[in-house]
Amino acid sequence: MNIMLFHSTHGLTPAVRQAADRLRAAGHEVWTPDLFEGRTFDSVEEGMAHKDRIGKEELLRRAVLAAAPYSERGLVYAGFSLGASVAQTLALGDDKARGLLLLHGTSDIAPNAHVEDLPVQLHVAEPDPFETDDWLSAWYLRMGRIGADVEVYRYAGAGHLYTDPDLPDYDAEAAEATWRVALGFLDALEES
Asked: How high is the pLDDT of residue 87?
């Protein structure tokens, strides 16, 4: 599969590059756009402040420009937290998207969004301070109404960014379970 993998508010960190390498080792082609242009942050607060300085429209513009040269190939959009939000926005606007892999995050859904059976897989902590139960329930129902085929996996007791081995949120067991299921999802997309 061709995968466009977007980073979290921490920026394009070694953990994101390691995730991309893991996907490549499984036979996928992966791009990791740097929406923060080289900046990385130790805390969510610093990263969010930087994201706010850039602005949502500029962040999405950078993401679209990064994905545009490859979208004809039929991309799987993927991302971590903030990057998942970006990936969701792009996937719902790309009629050639092959799938959407969300790690630790979701996004608002545009009122006019519609997809044809887009495979979507979400992996999120339970509980997650950024992805509350009420929000996730409403998001799941709305995604179904716009035509997405959604699977949700919750990981009890894990921290928000539990797949990042460089953060205090890291949960090795939950991370390995996530990667096992996510790689199966990508393999199934390859076969479809």
From this structure: 98
pTM of the model: 0.97
CATH number of the 2-191 domain: 3.40.50.1820
DSSP structure string for 32-88: ---TTTT---SSHHHHHHHHHHH-HHHHHHHHHHHHGGGGGG-EEEEEETHHHHHHH
pLDDT tens-digit readout, 12-21: 999 999 999 9
Q: Which sign does the torsion angle of CA 20, 187, 85, 175 carry?
A: negative
Q: Quick: pLDDT tens for 155-172.
A: 999 999 999 999 999 999
> Smallest Cα–Cα separation from 29: which of 86, 98, 80, 95?
98
Local structure of 176: helix, strand or coil? helix
Helices (H) and strands (E) in the chain, counts: 6, 6
DSSP-derived secondary structure letter, 117: S
- Pairwise CA distance, residues 46 & 185, whole Å: 33
State yes or no: pLDDT of 192 exceeds 90.
no
Distance CA 96, CA 52 (A): 30
